[in-house]
Amino acid sequence: MRYMLMMHAPRGTSEYQVSEWAPQDLEAHIDFMGRLNRELTEKGEFVAGEGLTPPGQARVVRVKKDGTPAVTDGPFPEAKEFLAGFWIVEVDRAERAYEIAAKISSAPGPGGTPLIIPVEVRQVMSGPPEV
C-alpha cells in the first residue's frame, strides 16, 4: 500500500521559517531528512519525496475557455499551515506509515529541538484493476 505523508509547517511563525534559521540548524534539519530518506530507501519503502517552495511562490492554475492556462497567485484558502514537503512510501500496513510520519514530525528545528510538526497521512488510491 502506498501512503502520502505531508509535512505541514506553521504559517507566520518562526517555528518553520527555515530561511531565518542559523546555518547549523538548517544543516542539521536537512541532514535529518537525508538520513530518513536513505533509511526508507534501504528498507524498500521510499517511493518519492520532495521539499516545496514557500506559499508565496505557489500559483493556482485553471483552464481558460480557449484551453490555455490562467495562472494566478491565488486565491488560496486561509490556513494556519502550509504544505512544506511530502513523501510517498510503500509499506505493508498503515501503522508503518504512522511510524514514519512520527519520525518526520521529530525533525530538528532551531537549537536541535524537535519541531513536532504535523504530518498528514493519506493512502494513495489505486486505479481499477487492469483488464
Describe, in plain words, how this protein is organized in 3D.
The chain has 131 residues and is of the alpha+beta class. It has a single domain, classed as Alpha-Beta Plaits. 24% of the residues lie in helices and 29% in strands. It is built from two helices and six strands; from the N terminus they run βαββββαβ. The protein has helices at 23-42, 94-105, and strands at 2-10, 46-51, 60-63, 69-72, 81-90, 119-123. Strands 2-5-1-6 form a four-stranded antiparallel sheet, with helices on one face. The protein has a two-stranded antiparallel ribbon with strand order 3-4. The protein is flat. It starts with a strand and ends in an 8-residue tail after the last strand. The mean pLDDT is 91.
The number of distinct structural domains comes to 1
By DSSP, the count of extended strands is 6
**Structural class by sheet pairing and helices:** alpha+beta
What is the molecular shape? flat
H-E order: EHEEEEHE
Strand content: 25-35%
User: Rg, please?
Assistant: 17 Å
- Overall CATH class: Alpha Beta
Annotated CATH homologous superfamily: Dimeric alpha+beta barrel
Question: How are the strands of the largest sheet arranged?
Answer: 2-5-1-6
